[in-house]
Structure formats: C-alpha cells, structure tokens
Amino acid sequence: MSKMEGDVSGFNIDAPRWDQRTFLGRVKHFFNITDPRTVLVPEQELDWAKVMVEKSRTGVVPPGTQVEQLLYAKKLYDSAFHPDTGEKMNVIGRMSFQVPGGMIITGFMLQFYRTMPAVIFWQWVNQSFNALVNYTNRNAASPTSLRKHHPWWAAGCLLLPWPQLTVSTFQ
C-alpha cells in the first residue's frame, strides 16, 4: 500500500506537505498553491474542496477517501479560499491568477506604448490589477480601510507612467 492510498484517520490536513524549514520545501508549497491551473477549476469542485478540508479538520471524512484526494482538496482550498476569512476569493485576485493576468497586461503594455492615452490606460489597468491582488490576499485578521489604499493606487496610476512617457518623448 503506497503512502497516497493509506489510512486517512491520522491525516492532519493542516500539516505542511513539505518541510517549511527548507528553501525547496517553501518553493514547492508556493508553486502548489499558486498553480495557474487552479483558476480553471469549476466552482462546484472548489466547494467540494472546502467541504473535504472542513470535514478532514473535524476528523470526519467519507469512507474510501484517499490521502491523494485530501491533498488535492487542500491545494484547491488554499488557492481559492482566504486563509483568514475562509471566503472564496475573487478569481482575478487569486495568487494563482497573478502570473497569467500579469503576463496578459504586460503584453498589452508592451504593445500599446506609442500614445500617452494608451500608456496611461494600461498603467491604470496594471495598477488596478495589482491593487486587486494585494487587497484580495491581504491580512484580513487586521482591519484595513479602503481609504488607506486609494491614495497609493492613485499615485501608482498617475506617477508610474511618467518615466516611460518621458523616454518615449525623446526617441
């Protein structure tokens, strides 16, 4: 009997899968929960993952459940549900969407750099995307106000395009 097919009665779903004291263990954990493929998982499967994780925490899992299924449920749960609130996160704000979303936006920023309105628009899109990712993955245990975030978002939208606009003006 392999480790993945073993008895789940003593399985601790919250225990790290990889040794978090090592760099490689932390990298494996990060890549596991930021896997872009988890963005494409249907809502019903995410809800199933949440139920499985919650049942595993109470020690009540359906008969025939394998460790591999619990590990997959935990991966989906960690990638889609906020660790502090337990609420399902916005798809665009999830860490698993940051790389594909950022690549798409960067592609548009590289393509449409010739006019000032385009630079400002794509800078606004980029800054808004990053603000959404940061807000979605915030520490929800500490209260935060949107009033604190708005000035920084506005400053990023207004100030960050200027170096590129200056360079493109002198070409």
UniProtKB/TrEMBL annotation:
The keyword Transport applies. Keywords: Amino-acid transport, Membrane, Mitochondrion, Transmembrane, Transmembrane helix, Transport. It is found in: Mitochondrion membrane. GO terms for cellular component: mitochondrial inner membrane. GO terms for biological process: serine import into mitochondrion. GO terms for molecular function: monoatomic ion transmembrane transporter activity. It is a multi-pass membrane protein. Belongs to the sideroflexin family. This is Sideroflexin 2. The gene is SFXN2.
